[in-house]
Structures are given as C-alpha cells and as structure tokens.
Design goal:
By secondary structure, this protein is of the alpha+beta class. It is built from five helices and three strands; from the N terminus they run H-H-H-H-E-E-H-E. The longest helix is centred in the C-terminal third of the chain and has 22 residues.
Length: 137
Amino acid sequence: MAAPRKWNRPRNGSGKPKTGRENIHDELMSEWLGCDKPLNLGKNVSEAGSWIDDILKKQFFAESLDEEEVKTAWKEIAGDFIGANTEPVSVKDGNLVLRVTQPAVRFHLEQMKPELLRKIKARFGNDKIHSVRFTLG
C-alpha cells in the first residue's frame, strides 16, 4: 500500500502555515488586482545610476571628444593659414563644425575635406569625428 500523501499548507512570511483567513485575503486581493501576488517585487528593479552613465555617453558624449581639446589642437592639425581663417565651433555626434572667415577659404576647405578629416582622425581616433561642416561667419 502506498504511503499517504502529506498535504503541505501554503505558508505565510513567518514560515507558519497560512490560516483560512489569510488564504481568503490572498484570494480576494488577487481577484481585485487581477493577478497573483508577485513572488519577488525587487527582482527586476535596478538602480537608475547604472543606466544614467550609459545613456549620457550614448546621447551626449559618445566617448566624447572635448571641444577645448579640438580647439587647442586645431591650428597644429590644419596649419597656419587654415588655422588663422577657421575656428572650431562645436563637436557633436561626431560632426566637427568649423567657422570660416571667407567664402573662398570655404571653397578651398571643401576641396581639402578628405585630407582634413584624415588628419583629424589620425589625431583623435577614427571613432571620434566622422564628418566636417563649414559655416561662414
């Protein structure tokens, strides 16, 4: 003859078996909420600080290149004439924006853009600046 099955009553948080009243309470709450009580409320919770750094790096910095670093190195990269007639304005999302003093210089720089971009990438790395734009000012 098989051994009789031992019935395990559900247990409350203290390890004691739940009373009939506690079972009724749990059933009413699950009906009212429309679901059973989750086993571990903190299971999928993480601290905001662990995500903020990643988001800021992707959105704003992207292993950022300091604009001041570009401004100080610009004359060395571009040379005396180009450095005297241009000024780095901003670096955002891998785009370097240069302010140019004259339209003729801008035309000259458009012709030199691949060479300038190569020098910039050699100085700061291939993944920092992807394109160069020129504005008159």
